[in-house]
Each structure stands twice: as C-alpha cells, then as structure tokens.
C-alpha cells in the first residue's frame, strides 16, 4: 500500500488541508514547551473549520480555513497546491507509537490458547513459550524476511493513523541476530515515508544458553551489541526489560552505563510484573519507563519533577486478560508526564492500533479521550525525544497528520475495534486509506 520511497532530493509538494471539521493542533495552551502533564494533558488546541498549509515537508501556517484563504502566498500559488478537503473530518497530529517490537516472524498462537486456558505469563515462559519461543525463527530468518515483516507492520500502523514509530530489536538475542534485526528496521524505515526510531533491546530476556550465567550475557550486550550498534548508528536507544524473570536492577545499571559510554540514550521496561525502585536509574536520564503497573509513591514524586516519560501500554494488560491496569489517574494527577503506546509484540500485545490503546486507556485507566490523544501524540514524541519535530500541528513541525472519518475526536477512542482512519500524511506523503 505504501510505495513512496524516501529521498533527500524529493521535496513534498505544497499541501493545504482545508475545511477541517475539527483540527486538533495540540498546541500548548499554557505556552509550556515541555512534556504535557496534569491538567495540560487534556489541552488539545482545537480549531473548528481549520486549515493547515504545508511547504517543503514542514507546516507553515495553522488556523481557520477563512484565514488560510486570505493568505497572499496561497492566493498567488493556489494552482500549485494540492488541496485536501477535510469537511466532516477530524485531523490531528499523526500518532507517535513510542513502544513497539515489530521484528518477529510468527504469531504466538499456542501461548494465546494456553493463556485462555488459564496459564500465567511465567508458566507459559517456563513451558518453553514466551519471548524465548520467538528467538529461533528470527535467528534463522534472512534479513529480507524480517524487513518484510517490519514493513507490513509499519503500513498497518500508518493505516490506523500512526506516522512515527519506535521499533525495538529483541527477538534474536545473539550479537548477529540483534544487529540483523536492527538492519531490518533500518531497511524497512528507508522504504516507509514515516519516521522510525530504532532501539536495541538485546536485554529482552536472558537466552536459554546463558540461563546459568546471566552475567556472561550482560557482558555480551555491554561489550559487543551496544558498541557495534552504536558504531554503525543502528540504534538511538538502548532498552532493558528489568523485571522478575528478565534482568535485575544491577544488570540494568550495567547496561545503561554501557549505553551511556557509547552515547546512546536509554529507556526501560519497568514495573510490569514487580515493583522496581526507579530512582537509581534516574542518573542515566532515561527517556521513558514503560509499563509501570507497579510504582512506588516516592518514584511517582520523582517522575513528576522530570521529563522521563511514563509510557503506558494497556494493550498488554488487555491481551493478558488482567483485571488490573496501570494507575494512569494517580500518575497524571501527581504531575507525571504520561504517554500511550501499543507495545506491539507477538506475545502480549499483538495490536498495531493506537486508537485501540486509546480506547483501553479511557475504559480501563480512566483517562479522558482528550488525555488519550495528547498521550499518543505530543507525549509520545517527548518519549522519543522528537517533540521538536513531531506530535503537534504547529509551524515548523513535520507534515505528519492523521485524518479520521469523524465529527468529534472522542469518536477515535469510542468506536473500538474498527478503523476509522481515512488518511495519513507521513513527512508530506499523503496516503489515503479509503
Ligand atoms: Zn515492550
């Protein structure tokens, strides 16, 4: 479906989105330039009958259609401008999915069935399922096979309104297969008009062959994977799954220190199964802690003072059939900046849909529809440190939009399980979906 190829020489043609029923700019009402927190999280900067003019892949003006049509430049050059009529539509910044694991080969249907029968996450892992069961296929697959899998996921994400995606490796867990996974992400990204932020997740779980000596594996991550991924610029972030059955806080600190040494930023899966004290990691200035089903009061106070994002992924709780969800209200009300992501992965959250994550955020975490929008756009951009370019519709930012067949933005989270995204614009490339 998406065939446009990126080229430094291709300058997107001028585009005018006009007659927009509801334009969600996500411009900060308070003028605060940082991540959105507390009551700022629900400020969407809505313009009725809106218009956005884009030139050279950047947004140049945002306002009402009436004002746009009075613009002298537009009056003079109107014939050269691609005009898109967005009457009776909602237009918002393209979603920023800041947590996905797209480099895998097959769905984990046996795990799915066992879980339905009552087996726990850890029982499935102990029986040979879980993350480790995805390793063989990734290790054996040619890079081109992995590239195709990632490209399929990216195209589906775009069809649901996502224009920026963080993509993790993590189903190879050998030096070669992790680098191969990152190369597949790079190849897929080069053929997709949207934006991909690559993350090395060599520390996803300890592979079976290192079970008796996890420290040896940690050393491979620190001394081989991280330096090689950094040298070849294959990753912007290093992620660690720090939890029961994965990596300890001490191992996580070691891996973060190696990332820092090689000038890669860090993020981590934290507090999904067990509470981990977060404060020792703050000296590494992590971009995000993800999951946070369990988090203590002192850490909540610390996070409220910082730009480290709390990225919530309710798709995992839903798919694992859990009764409990992360306490979004507690985090938001305390002033912690919160992002929403899909956690797209074959074991615990096989969804590419940000609207589904938004719906779950509203129904199971008591986030308002407006908070869900901001958490999946501007705060997602903060979680990936691309908020200077992404996540809101303001002059100077990239031309990334999602258009929904709706009169009201609340419909995005309301009509769960059906896709109402009618069009996405990815770095100026217009991709209609209907
Ligand atoms: Zn994850």
Provide an overview of this structure.
The radius of gyration is 21 Å and the shape is globular. The chain has 16 helices and 16 strands. The strands form two sheets. Strands 1, 2, 3, 4, 5, 14, 15 and 16 form an eight-stranded mixed sheet that branches. An eight-stranded parallel sheet has the order 6-7-8-9-10-11-12-13. The chain has helices at residues 65-69, 72-77, 109-116, 121-126, 135-140, 143-159, 175-190, 214-231, 249-261, 297-304, 314-319, 328-334, 354-365, 369-376, 378-383, 410-414; strands at residues 15-24, 46-55, 58-64, 82-85, 90-93, 95-97, 162-168, 195-203, 237-242, 265-270, 288-291, 309-312, 338-340, 401-404, 421-426, 429-432. It is an alpha/beta fold and 434 residues long. Mean pLDDT is 95; it is low at 1-5. The structure holds zinc ion. Zinc ion (ZN) is lined by residues 99, 101, 269, 343, 345.
